Fold each of these.
Amino acid sequence: MTHSHKVGRFTVTWLVDGYGRAPNTLFPNFDMDRARAAADQAGHEYDGQTVEIPIQGFAIQDGDEITIVDAGAPDGYSDTTGKFVAAMEQAGIDPTRVTRLAMTHLHVDHVGQMVEPDGTMRFPNAQLVSGAGDWDHFFDDAFYASKKPGGREQASIDVTRRACLPYAQQRREITGETEIAPGLTMVPLPGHTPGHCGIRIDDGGDSLLIWGDIIHSATFQVAEPDWGVLFDIDPDQARATRQALFAKIAQDGTPITGPHVPRPGPWRVEKAPIGYRLTAI
């Protein structure tokens, strides 16, 4: 499934991979009363046990240049994902014509379709662009060894390594806010991972921020920006980044979307009786 939106000269297409369902325990600060209040404010159904988490990437087209922002979950990730490649086909995107992979970060559900089933590059002519620190983090053998042998976290890192390693000779690391192509800027948003970034699109007074994993659940975390997730590498930094970003874009009105933001979007963040809320544009 796809959905497109114009940002000046750019065409941004949502490449929907599917969705997951996360238990309450994903959120270390979870509180049932606050969760129900947040869900009510967001207008989302909540069964008291799990929340739906969209999983999607984006294609940004500028003339002949195509930038993919995040590349879905790997095959077999869940029975409700696996549509990323079909979404690219529906959007008419030839992977061999993709110019760059601008990754918000390198977690498994963002890099899963960077390679074919045989491990070769799905995007052979694309440069892999990511925030400084992420590559070293996911290829850190000491970090890997600190996880349960054969456990879920090691398996996740294995998938990330398998997806990223073929691009080792055509990758670029970004330090600080950096324009990676005219009108496309990588914006550091650290905490979830060391190199976690957003990608901001600007043209002719129009803008859109693809904010990475600033949130996983719009049901909870927009109203409760102090709620992180278990996968945050630096929970305190992730919380501070989210709080500062919400305050900034609620004031300046920057439109947003993200890999785990509800569709279709884009949205604006505005102050609400409880924290913030998303409003459709």
Amino acid sequence: MACVTISTRSWRTADECAGAQRPRSRGSNDQHTLLADVSFTIDSGERVGLIGESGSGKSLTALAVMGLLSDGVRATGSVELGNGGEGNLLERSEREMAKIRGSEMAMIFQEPMTALNPTMRVGAQVAEVMRIHGTEPSKAAAKSRAVELLDSVGLPDPANVARSYPHQLSGGQRQRVVAAIALANSPDLLICDEPTTALDVTVQALVLDLIVRQVEERDAALLFITHDLAVVATVCERVVVMYGGRIVEAGPVTGVFTEPRHHHAGPVGSF
């Protein structure tokens, strides 16, 4: 059972859990707070939308959870996965996080071409994540399972797709491959960072349906980042609204959209 707890501490409060900070200059102890007071929990099987205008801190929150912050950006506080057996993920080394990423938690990024290796056939890329984490006993088993995963995400003729390179696929097909990679090891937490922004409306609907269906089958927790409120209403049950690096509102999708307490949470279509 997955329960993801994310909390962030600002420089102003010692009892809350914690933000991302970047030093202003070398040799100085001054730090610039990028995120503060960001705290929420996602239960197993729950689909939560993280929304806000550009620069509000949505993607930075996701990268902090995944342990993928840029050099010079530091996260403090706590991120716990499942029953807390892994401890605070923010305190794990890169070697330890590499074992968790792709296994217990995974992420689908906005642009699939930046997430896929252009020199590898897509089937090999899907199989690779299973071999790295030891979820399939052999190379042959991982290869066979990769074709099954490509089929499960709705790609026609998955055996042929497995032999293709990323540039030979359409944008929607590439995003389905990325989804297959992210879901290969049945993670407890799936983070989607605007995965359909670059897709046309028809393909977007298919990919959204795919993500929801696959998450439900695995009873995984979903954190779905977007600026499109219509997408949130389609995918998510609960929504967290960020503005200026802080959470300004959270609650059930219907309640937040119909009776917002903060002006950045109203039914405006998109940010």
Amino acid sequence: MRFFLFLTLLSLPFWLPSAYRRTIHPFRPAKCFVQWPHVTKWETPPLTDLKALESLKKPFTYFSKGGQSFVFMSQDGQYVLKIFHYDSCRIPLGSHLVAAFRKWLGLSHRRYIYTPEKIEKTFEACSLAFRYAQEQTGLVYIHLNPKEGLPNITLLDCFGRKHIVNTSQVRFALQKRAAPFLPAFLEQPKEPLFQSFHTLLEEISAQGIVNNDSRLNGNFGILDGKVVAIDFASFIYSPERAKQREIFFEKKLQRWIDKHVVEAR
């Protein structure tokens, strides 16, 4: 026990700075720049949606931070801009030690994914979603091979500070904003929503896509009255597992409905 306490204390100087950056000061433009080779299969046609183009000319306000991106909301509230970020820590000693201690205590922990592996997995998932599930995810445009042609983007961070970002230097996804998923089942008739959820899962499954993230509320949302998959960062192509994953999510939602919707009545 003392040994693990010693390791935890030893790891704090390595872990606290990154924890501070993730919570107190989450958005840092420097985390969005990375040298990565051009990948042909990640190419997409130019953005031609006039409404979406107009939204990029106006400031986006900080909304949240996920495991793969900073999320900003458009001025009209119709779009979210997900700017991909990267862990700049080359020596994740503190994270490894804390993870080992949490495992020893029996607490949950996540495997540390090194930056190159994380980048490739995230971009492959994003490309997969845009090519085969654009309607099902609400994706409008993805920018995985930075290039000229789009206006610079103005971002307002959580402190209201302005950042001008050169779009030829960052990678991002522009997505229609969806309403929260699970609360909708407490406010609207559940049958149409559940059927929409079933249809969404079938359509994604038919493309051989599997979502490796098991969350409900963080993965799905309501857009124009339909259920959509808002978090695509864990998408992989795995046709042999697709149907099984479809059934998993349906059962998980049904358990949630049985517990929470009934209790709310």
Amino acid sequence: MKFLNGGNVIRLPLDQIAVEGRLREVREQAIENLMLMAQDTGITTPIHVRKVQGRYVLIDGAHRLEVSRRLGLADIAALVLECRADEARAMEASNNLGVARMTPLQTAVFVASWKRDYYAMHPDRAPGTFKGNQHTGNLVGINLTLTRTIADAFGVSEPTIKRALQAGERLTPEEAAQLDSAPGRVTMEDLKALAKIADPEERSAVVLRLASGNAKSAAAARKSLRVEAGVEAPVKDPVDTQFRDLSDAWTRAGAAARKRFLFEFAREIWHAQNSGAALNNWSEAADETAAAEEAVAAE
């Protein structure tokens, strides 16, 4: 990887910059915010592009590029590099991990991409790779803790990044895109649950339920699938269970016990029946309840 033009910023026509294979799509809210700022200050930070057979392909700065196009600008400040595709992806991931406020899902995708491309560029640094010790001739392991580096950059714990990494490595690009458009935000707990699903078909079904809004969480989606498949019994509704218990007790009780129950719980029963009733009925109802309580006491 090397910078062209002596590392100097140049102006590139917007129509000469291609946007391909992005890890993260542009966000409309981010574009709107940037446009407001750009109207006062312009686009001051150069984008990064790589030169590929006479073409310029975007590496970093998709939002800045889109804002420039919407503002009708002819060109944009850019730093031009000569690098491979995996080096470009690693740069995009590292730049975004360092400064962007990303969702847990986007973090998972970026962390997995960074790890994959980093070790592709540096296979000798992958966990489990060994080299000879020049003094003893023994083999020593090399294990670069990328998760710790990312956690420090992102301001979160290393276990959190490890969970995101596991999910990011399991999810296909199609599944990540589906989850990114889900009506509810995909949480780190959802990603943790998805990371535990080794079966691609089951994971795809869980993703579909989350993306369609038919499940509030990955755990709930997975449980509903298991219930439908007959692998797991459905969860009992606690309200139904309590109602059946009360109904059974009422059926077993004698007439005197039922009458006493009605008198003792008259106030609660009235409140349940008249929720939202006009306020001028409350005093009359209270008098009736008091009379009922006195009658019970006199028995």
